TrEMBL record:
Source organism, top-level taxon: Bacteria
Gene: COQ5_2
Taxonomic lineage: Bacteria, Bacillati, Chloroflexota, Chloroflexia, Herpetosiphonales
Entry keyword set: Methyltransferase, Transferase
Domain Methyltransferase type: residue ranges: 49-138
GO MF entries: methyltransferase activity
Gene3D superfamilies: Vaccinia Virus protein VP39
GO biological process: methylation
PANTHER family, sorted: METHYLTRANSFERASE, N6-ADENOSINE-METHYLTRANSFERASE TMT1A
InterPro entries per the UniProt record, alphabetical: Methyltransf_11 (IPR013216), Methyltransf_Superfamily (IPR050508), SAM-dependent_MTases_sf (IPR029063)
Keyword Methyltransferase: yes
Species per Swiss-Prot/TrEMBL record: Herpetosiphon gulosus
Protein name per its UniProtKB record: 2-methoxy-6-polyprenyl-1,4-benzoquinol methylase, mitochondrial
CDD domains: AdoMet_MTases
Length: 203
């Protein structure tokens, strides 16, 4: 089964379709973005980094001029660029190719549980560098299905390809001393449950 999922994940269009189905077109994630990040657009121009943007599913949640999506997969980035006029680039958390204070907020959806502790801490340091003072992160990470009857969600969690799914306290530890957790809550998107974190940059 893991080999099957790996094969699908290497096909961006197929992977994007599968994820849209099991997550009901990302209704939960889109609602969190609308509630937590979109209000920022009402005050003054803001710059948003979508770290680990994958196939660019959330680019449409942001104005084109305010958004930059980055992902390690060249195939995903190429696919995202065919669907949207937003900006995308290939890079990872080791060294983001942006100047200091280039963004006001970052979105991270289902990325950190694929990173070991060392890379996650380097990523937190890099995000701190490229976010301006007062910057924030909205992060969503996979958690086990919260309801016993959500058997498809339990199966999806079991099949998840991330090797570093962590407990709540561990995310705070990994992002310290660069960020502090302002708030944490849970959502469901389709059959998938997520822990949602709102981090604030330590200035």
């Amino acid at each position: 089964m893991q080999a099957f999922l790996t094969n699908i994940a290497q096909r961006p269009a197929l992977w994007a379709t599968l994820r849209r189905i099991v997550e009901n077109n990302y209704v939960g994630e889109r609602a969190a973005i609308a509630d937590e990040l979109t209000p920022w657009l009402q005050t003054k121009p803001r710059r948003f980094l979508d770290f680990g943007c994958g196939t660019g599913e959330f680019a449409s949640s942001f104005p084109q001029h305010s958004y930059m999506g980055v992902d390690l997969s060249q195939g995903y980035v190429r696919y995202a660029a065919t669907l949207s006029d937003h900006r995308f680039g290939v890079m990872n958390g080791n060294a983001l190719a942006f100047g200091d204070a280039s963004f006001d907020a970052a979105l991270i959806v289902g990325v950190i549980h694929h990173l070991d502790d060392a890379l996650a801490q380097i990523t937190a340091r890099e995000l701190h560098r490229v976010l301006a003072p007062g910057g924030e992160i909205l992060m969503l990470e996979d958690i086990p299905a919260q309801d016993w009857w959500n058997l498809p969600g339990r199966l999806m969690h079991w099949l998840d390809r991330g090797d570093a799914i962590r407990q709540d306290a561990d995310y705070g530890r990994l992002f310290a001393p660069y960020f502090t957790i302002q708030r944490r809550w849970s959502i469901r998107s389709g059959i998938c449950d997520y822990a949602v974190y709102r981090f604030s940059r330590v200035d």
